[in-house]
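User: Hi! I'm a student and our assignment asks us to look at how structure tokens line up with a sequence. Could you show me two examples?

Assistant: Happy to help. In each example below, the sequence comes first and the structure tokens follow. Example one:
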Amino acid sequence: MGEARDPELLTDPSYIGSPYFTQSEANQLKSFVPDGSDTTVHLLLESALDEKLKRRQKKREATQDYWVCAAHDLAPVFEKAFGVRSKDLQKDKKFIKSLTSDGLVLKEK
């Protein structure tokens, strides 16, 4: 795993921040208010992550394993907040072409 993806380098508990986003990008994403919502993405994520952590603490007390899993814990929260469905993206030819040609480019420090 590359240094830019190292969870220990995260500076924001919502995962919308360095090293994945610039401060300006993070502020834009966090202040976004999804359709049908009266609150920002930042507050939606904070609430969802707090709830997941409470459930995880109950399950993981014995092992002390409190890691957040991006695929299982974060993806559904981001999908709901931004109105994206991974199954739709898998079928979106324009998205797949863009991903194939440009890849996912992570910002360096």
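Example two works the same way, sequence first and then tokens:
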Amino acid sequence: MALTLRGALVASPALRPPLPSLKSYKLVASDHFTAKMITSAAPLPFPVRFYDPTIQAPDSRGRTLTSILAWPDDRLEHSHDYIQILFPLPERSPFNFSAPVIDEQTFSQFRSKSELRDRLRDSLVRLLHFYGFELAPQVSAAEAGNGKYRVNLGVDFPQASRNWVTRFDHNHLRITRIIRSCRILGLEDEAQAFHAALLRVATERPGVISQKSFMFWARAAHRPLFLAPEDEVDEGHGEDFLYRYEEGRQVAATIPQRVDS
């Protein structure tokens, strides 16, 4: 008998999905996850076609990534059906039923192809600017220990923050989505840098943003990927490929790191 991440006892390890190779989850171009788990004949899911720089597929309204990222801030604020396109999740959107979701193929494609992550980062940079932030590389070895990136306040923060630095705002839901989507699709450092910037805003402006919003942002930033921020506990409803990924991470954490002499 064994206890899985789902919290369920299974009679035999043979009943569980096999753990993929730990090597398959490294964010490198030689990633083997796609080759092992997804056949080349499978059609590419929409998020991959949308973000692929050679395909640049439009959404159902004819909008490409390039066109959305060129929108002015006012349109980003008042349009409500693009954020699910830029930052998909494994869960269905309660506000946009036709929005794409992250399936196993989308997950593996983004984690194996740097060009997809680069364009996802472009989306993050645009939304960070919309909120008054800037994404920058860490500049010192000490800072680099906290990740490759830092999110700083931009020169437009006083004006841009009026849209969302308040008790509650629809942008708080968007921020939760952005953090979770970036983590799942391979931008862990960037997502953590964004969350750290939000915490700094809270320190400088205590009591302005609701604790509930900060709770959801923390859940999006730190929970296992299979557990959605809105779920109080894990009841086994997450996607199987995310459970397997987290199991792989747990196994990797038990393997001693080799130190080259």
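Here is something you could point out in your write-up. The radius of gyration is 19 Å.
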